[in-house]
Amino acid sequence: MSVHPRVIHKRRETITALPLYYSGHLLKKHRKEKDFKKYYAELRGATLFLYEDDTQDTYTEKLNLEELTSMELDSPYQRKTPTIFTLRLSTEVVQLKMDNPDTGEEWRGYILTVIKKEIPSKLQLLPGQMMQLQEVRDQERRRRNLLTLRPPLPPRPSVLLASPPPPPPKDKPDGAPEVPECFFSVTRQEAERMLEANPEYGGMILRPSTLENNYALTIRQMMPSGPLTRNYRVTTTNSGFVIELETPVTVSSLKGVVKYFLEKTEYRLRPYMLSQPYDTHIELSFAPSITLPTPKTIPKAQVAPMLQSKTKEAPALPPKEPVGGEYVVPCDGSSDDLNELKLAQLDGELQEVLKFRRDGICAATTREEEVTTYENQTSEKCHFNTVLWAIESAVV
Description:
Layout: H1 5-15, E1 20-30, E2 37-44, E3 47-51, E4 61-64, E5 68-73, E6 83-89, E7 93-98, H2 101-116, H3 127-149, H4 158-161, H5 188-197, E8 204-208, E9 215-223, E10 226-237, E11 240-243, E12 249-251, H6 254-264, H7 336-363, H8 367-395
Antiparallel strand pairs: 1-2, 1-7, 2-3, 3-4, 5-6, 6-7, 8-9, 9-10, 10-11, 11-12
């Protein structure tokens, strides 16, 4: 199934934003190689992109013509002989061959105009072709002026100046580079669909390239005219990774590739990272049961209990108050016999009271009985004092 050339052209534009000046078939080889190899070439800006054929949407090789030091024509222009150019770059020497000499003259005019920004003085071209060269010259001058007048990037935020702690090493095969979190093993079309469907996850996906051991970067940016999707190639070299831009950039790791694009876009671009699920319910955990150690039993000393007497000792009685009535002084008078009779009667009553008092005191065995006995004794004492008062009154 053939792909429409317009579709291929759009896909190639996603790789680089450089303007297309000229394209066509040519043959190319390094100076030390024996045979030429056929390619489909596109001159975009000051870079020559080489494709295996005109249906391939990703380039196989590119030549940075800004490194061109000289361009030599191996033979003078002749209509019936192939045209061969020798391009001396800072890193290599390449030869280009065109079977059609008229096409070779056009290639020579476009390459020199783009590099020198001036139209060569001696060109075997038609007036219409010269007008096209003038448009290319003016367009390339404007593009170069914009690059030189581009304002410098603002200083990095202070929070980004401190390098974050290195992440824990991930399990990976021996010799494989460590990939960032925005790496997904997807194709270009899958990466573009992911960025379009979930813009909130980010706008940059690092993925494997169609070429072995190489990588590609797919980004989606919001521009004033709408979303713009582009793809960039990242080539693996012995010294690190090369971001293939107008001016190639070499970094030491794949994380450096992501960091470079973040800085160039002033951190308006974010790496694509899937959203992780979060819990919304808090479980109540019960306190663990704690088993207290069993206290040691200390044997008690075997001590014989004290024996108490069931009968309580009677409380000590208050000292006896001297009773004045016990001693009677006879009075002179004629009533001696009557007084003696009264004293005898009182003495008998007094002896009964005293006897009752002693019996009551000795019989008290409990506290309640003691209180009762004490009250009785008090009553008896009052009675005794009353009797004694009566005797004294009678004697007097």
